[in-house]
Design goal:
By secondary structure, this protein is α/β, with parallel strands linked by helices. It has 4 domains: 1-39; 63-70 and 82-180 and 269-402, 3-Layer(aba) Sandwich (D-Maltodextrin-Binding Protein, domain 2); 183-262, D-Maltodextrin-Binding Protein, domain 2; 410-500, OmpA-like domain (60s Ribosomal Protein L30, Chain: A, 2-Layer Sandwich). It contains 17 helices and 15 strands. The strands form 3 sheets. It has a 6-stranded mixed sheet with strand order 2-1-3-10-4-11, with helices on both faces. It has a 5-stranded mixed sheet with strand order 7-6-8-5-9, covered by helices on one side. Strands 12-15-13-14 form a 4-stranded mixed sheet. Helix 2 crosses helix 8 and helix 4 (131-140) crosses helix 5. The longest helix has 30 residues, at 6-35. It is globular. It starts with 5 loop residues before the first helix and ends with a strand. Mean pLDDT is 83; it is low at 1-5, 31-80 and 398-411.
Length: 501
């Protein structure tokens, strides 16, 4: 047998050494991994970049699907099992609009028993005195101690300020409630059912909720925008009409004229809404969903015991006295989840929604000269937060209030608040039904009386068809709608809104 060459012996030994080293390396790496503790790095949340998170009580069905659900890394090395809180800064125009949040947060900053903290939200609340302060705070954002992520404000004032906030793409994501009796319209000459000839003057603070009530009511009553002119409260010339905030004056001067209507007569005309940037709503769905759910608990506390709630809020530094708070909370009606489902358009019925009122409100302010651009193409509201809550809780939350526009009987008297007139020669029955639905939603405590011009047989048939279409499309109660004889004036059709008892 031939002996192996020296070169082959060297190569075989080299291969053996390499294989041995590889085996030793594998064993060593296995031992090191077995002994090494596991660490998961977690980024520190900030007000501008913190990802939304809620406690396990609010975890199911927060986002529409798993891919879009907000995610937060969880620390496994500490062993505490606690998730970091999602920071959220919320500002409201006046103390009474912030009341539900103050109760459940146990103060402006999270108290020991804050329900927001228990829901995974580090909520810091602030009271803003003027709409200009709200605009500045929204522009700063929650990352700034002087800014806010969410603003709770009257919707008419949000619409009036929209052009200045357009770059933020603000969205209404929650209806907090409605103003019912805080705003009033007075007539010094004529009335809503007997408008004076020529130019009409309205004294009011431009961009305010009371100005919106006055302008919208006058336009519905038939005063074209070309005939309306604003007068500032400081003007000395007596106006035809004056719109006042009853919260800002101890007593109405008799010189203001005769009361025409208040926001209690049009209970849905001045909603109080929660607004945030579109991007913030999209990236913080879980935190906002938890915030809304806890806020609703604060509203329940006020409904259950307003006096105790006012006393508790008055303990905050700078808060009004309990009696003042009681007076300011009185003309506020809080919305529940079912109300929000209807206003978000999730019920599939109802001519009055957040979007439809925004569109009408834009027309009102633009006609008055406060807005100059066309209606925004992007929606002004986002239903994602309410949709998430409806999936969690169902639509049986506050069902009685949700169905009030369709099921409950309405009492009314024959006093006509205003008369909406169609000037077109021919009546479009679908358009007439749409206006019936919108006005029935806006004046949800009133009976409507519908009339169409024509012979006895024709006018009754057309009016009945429009009324039936409105009942079918919008779920209105039949006892809220009446068919009248010929319309007043030269209109082809009229809808009279009767005062509620």
């Amino acid at each position: 047998m031939t002996a192996p060459l020296n070169g082959e012996i060297v190569r075989s030994k080299a291969v053996f050494v390499v294989l041995l080293l590889m085996l030793l390396g594998f064993v060593a790496s296995t031992l090191v991994r077995w002994r090494m503790p596991t660490f998961i790095e977690m980024a520190t949340p900030t007000a501008s970049s913190a990802t939304a998170v809620v406690s396990s009580n609010f975890a199911p069905n927060i986002a529409p699907n798993a891919s879009s659900a907000p995610k937060m890394p969880v620390a496994s090395s500490s062993g505490s099992g606690k998730q970091p809180l999602s920071p959220l800064r919320v500002g409201a125009l006046r103390w009474e609009l912030l009341a539900p949040g103050l109760l459940v947060n146990a103060g402006l900053d999270p108290g020991e028993n804050s329900l927001f903290v228990k829901a995974g939200v580090d909520a810091h609340l602030s009271v803003l005195d003027r709409m200009s302060e709200v605009e500045e705070a929204l522009a700063r954002g929650g990352a700034d101690a002087k800014g806010v992520d969410v603003a709770v404000i009257p919707m008419p004032e949000f619409i009036a300020a929209y052009e200045r906030l357009r770059a933020l793409e603000p969205r209404v994501f929650f209806v907090v409630g409605w103003s019912r009796g805080r705003e009033a319209l007075y007539a010094k000459q004529g009335s809503l059912t007997n408008l004076p000839e020529g130019e009409l003057t309205l004294r009011a603070e431009p961009g305010s909720s009371q100005a919106f009530l006055g302008l919208f009511s006058l336009q519905l009553a038939g005063a074209p925008p070309t005939r309306l002119r604003f007068e500032l409260p400081s003007d000395k010339t007596p106006p035809d009409f004056e719109a006042l905030s009853l919260m800002d004056i101890p007593k109405v001067d008799a010189a203001s004229g005769k009361l025409q209507l208040t926001s209690a007569d049009a209970p849905m005309m001045v909603p109080i809404v929660a607004v945030a940037q579109a991007g913030f709503v999209d990236t913080h769905r879980a935190a906002l969903t938890a915030w809304v759910r806890v806020w609703l608990e604060g509203e329940d506390r006020i409904r259950a015991d307003a006096a105790t709630s006012a006393r508790e809020i008055s303990k905050q530094g700078g808060a009004p006295d309990p009696l003042v708070l009681i007076n300011r909370l009185g003309p506020l009606s809080w919305a529940n989840l079912a109300d929000n489902a209807r206003w978000a358009g999730l019920s599939g019925r109802g001519a009055l929604t957040t979007e439809s009122l925004f569109q009408r409100g834009w027309e009102v302010w633009k006609a008055a000269g406060l807005l100059s651009t066309p209606l925004p193409e992007a929606p002004a509201s986002s239903p994602t937060i309410i949709s998430a809550l409806v999936r969690q809780l169902g639509t049986d939350q506050g069902t009685e209030k949700f169905n009030k526009n369709s099921d409950l009987p309405r009492g009314s008297h024959n006093d006509v608040l205003l008369r909406f007139a169609f000037s077109a020669a021919e009546v479009d029955e679908d358009a007439l039904a749409g206006e019936i639905g919108f006005l029935a939603g806006l004046f949800d405590r009133s009976t409507l009386r519908v009339a169409v011009r024509g012979t006895a047989a024709i006018h009754k048939a057309k009016a009945a068809k429009a009324v039936a279409a409105a009942i079918g499309r919008f779920g209105l109660a039949e006892n809220r709608l009446q068919i009248a004889s010929q319309p007043a004036r030269t209109a082809s059709a009229t809808i009279e809104v009767l005062g509620a008892r």
